[in-house]
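STRUCTURE:
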């Protein structure tokens, strides 16, 4: 009987012991872990600054004489039959030079994404003279002609302005960015063309020389195109940043001249 009572007592104590053995401990006074919200350097708002740089201009003069020759030979059998206006007597040229200017814009920040607008102005002096390779041919257009075409052209871009959309990514105090937009410039353009030769016939006495020429000079004329660029802003003080940028600008054909500019710039600005 005593053994039975002992066994019953042990069975009554066992559930409590097992419960104490497998109970999950709880740290008194603790709360669930909540990660801190990410922090981003503030870039939103207006900004403005100044810049200096260096660039390279490329100029294609191959079509610069076409409209001039076509005008000089208008309503002639020579142009209608042989088309001397299409002869390419001018080639390509390039030049480099310094630039300086200013920029301004507005940033809208979405966590680590920057979207904004940016305007940029550079005072430049990219200019070049066309390479000349005169052409002489003997052509038949009703009569037999010995024809020579020559000319010259030059272009100097004095100002470049761009209005661009901008997108960047916040990496602590650095914002790499890309841009794309419209470009406008001012240029001084000079070009001329001359067509000369001899109209031959069966009799040397009936052969006669001829010469036609046309020219054009435009100073401060506006040229238009588009721009694209890459760069980075680096925050060095709470409201002061440095900028490094590469920009490509391509202008539409003007007076038969096609031009494009590449610039490397360094600048400093204030954000407000």
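SEQUENCE:
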């Amino acid at each position: 009987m005593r053994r039975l009572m002992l066994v019953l007592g042990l069975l009554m104590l066992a559930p409590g012991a097992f419960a104490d053995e497998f109970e999950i401990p709880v740290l008194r006074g603790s709360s669930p872990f909540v990660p801190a919200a990410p922090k981003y350097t503030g870039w939103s708002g207006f900004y403005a600054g100044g810049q200096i740089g260096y660039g390279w201009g490329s100029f294609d003069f191959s079509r610069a004489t076409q409209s001039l020759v076509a005008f000089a030979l208008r309503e002639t059998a020579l142009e209608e039959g042989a088309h001397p206006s299409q002869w390419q007597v001018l080639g390509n040229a390039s030049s480099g030079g310094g630039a300086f200017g200013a920029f301004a814009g507005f940033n809208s920040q979405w966590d680590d994404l920057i979207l904004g607008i940016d305007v940029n102005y550079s005072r430049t002096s990219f200019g070049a003279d066309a390479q000349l390779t005169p052409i002489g041919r003997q052509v038949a257009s009703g009569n037999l002609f010995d024809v020579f075409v020559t000319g010259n052209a030059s272009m100097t871009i004095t100002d470049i302005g761009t209005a661009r959309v901008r997108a960047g990514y916040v990496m602590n105090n650095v914002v790499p960015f890309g841009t794309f937009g419209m470009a406008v410039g001012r240029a001084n353009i000079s070009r001329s063309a001359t067509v000369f030769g001899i109209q031959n016939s069966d009799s040397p006495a009936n052969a006669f020389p001829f010469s036609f020429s046309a020219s054009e000079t435009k100073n401060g004329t506006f040229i238009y195109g588009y721009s694209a660029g890459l760069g980075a802003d680096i925050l060095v003080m709470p409201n002061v940043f440095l900028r490094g940028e590469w920009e490509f600008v391509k202008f539409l054909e003007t007076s038969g001249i096609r031009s494009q500019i590449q610039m490397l710039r360094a600048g400093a600005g204030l954000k407000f």
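REMARK: The chain has one domain: 42-271.
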